[in-house]
Amino acid sequence: MKNGDAGRPPGEDLLVETRGLTKRYGRRITAVDNLDLAVRRGEVYGFLGPNGAGKTTTLRMLLGLIRPSSGRARVLGERPGAPDGLARIGALVESPAFYPYLSGKDNLRVMARYADVPWWRVDEALMEVELQGRAKDKFRKYSLGMKQRLGVAAALLKDPELLILDEPTNGLDPKGMADMRALIRELGSGERTVLLSSHLLGEVEQICDRVGVVRKGRLVAEGTVAELRGREGLLVRAEPLEEASYIAARLEGVEEATVVDGTLRLVADPERSAEINAKLVSAGIRVSELRPAEQSLEEVFLELTGRETV
Ligand SMILES: Nc1ncnc2c1ncn2[C@@H]1O[C@H](COP(=O)(O)OP(=O)(O)OP(=O)(O)O)[C@@H](O)[C@H]1O
């Protein structure tokens, strides 16, 4: 690779890049299998997969906590675990050990001192996770959601370019989950890049710009939520169905017409629905329903992950 002109090392617009990343445990377990991952600067990337798919193992490799069996990874242009890279990454992969009898703020002060972070970052990080009002309460009095937010604040102390969060809503109640989702959206809205893992589709669907779906250690799909959902379409209930299909297939703007389960599925721009309806009706077809039909991300996910439990 050649050096870039912008003063940044090459490849810096891909904050995370892996090639053939693999982690085996013994002969029988391949936790991560030939993974090619690319996380772009400024995006919120959702690493989505069922339990045991290899998400945590991947994140641990990216942080240099474990070594890959083969393949390579660059994080912020550095090899995983390199001090220069780590100084620009904040991570919440294992729950950090907080002192139960210290306040949230004092816990962060201790960490800031260890990490050689200026003291004023403690207040900023507390504000970012909206814990400033409870900063002086002892950690043990915090709800699970607050504890998790303090973990995020700890990851933010270095004001990192890249924030890596492993299942950040795990174990939280619905309100705690919603708060955490809102927080992640906020954290990822500016320059900062966020890589988060999740086994919950709804979660990545709501927060992420792009999603990588992992199954049994392999990346089975990658793209925006809209791309993963696939092409836009229309669902039509009409009589007689075969005739409707024949006519629809010949209409301008209809790419494909298929009869599925007693309905007609059209690959077409939903904005043309009124026009398609009018043409079918004028051809003598009785149309009882015509609406946009999107494959839900859940259907896509179940297809990709082989209908394992999520
Ligand atoms: N240290 C280890 N020794 C042996 N097998 C391991 C080890 N760590 C992980 N595995 C196995 O590797 C696979 C992937 O695990 P990993 O924890 O990365 O998955 P995950 O997608 O993060 O799932 P979860 O959300 O349940 O943590 C699993 O089958 C797991 O049992």
TrEMBL record:
It holds the Pfam family ABC_tran. InterPro entries: AAA+_ATPase, ABC_transporter-like_ATP-bd, ABC_transporter-like_CS, P-loop_NTPase. PROSITE patterns: ABC_TRANSPORTER_1 (PS00211), ABC_TRANSPORTER_2 (PS50893). The keyword Transmembrane does not apply. Keywords: ATP-binding, Nucleotide-binding, Transport. The keyword Transmembrane helix does not apply. One of its GO terms (molecular function) is ATP binding. Residues 16-241 form the ABC transporter domain. PANTHER family: ABC TRANSPORTER, ATP-BINDING PROTEIN. Belongs to the ABC transporter superfamily. This is ATP-binding cassette domain-containing protein. It comes from Rubrobacter marinus.
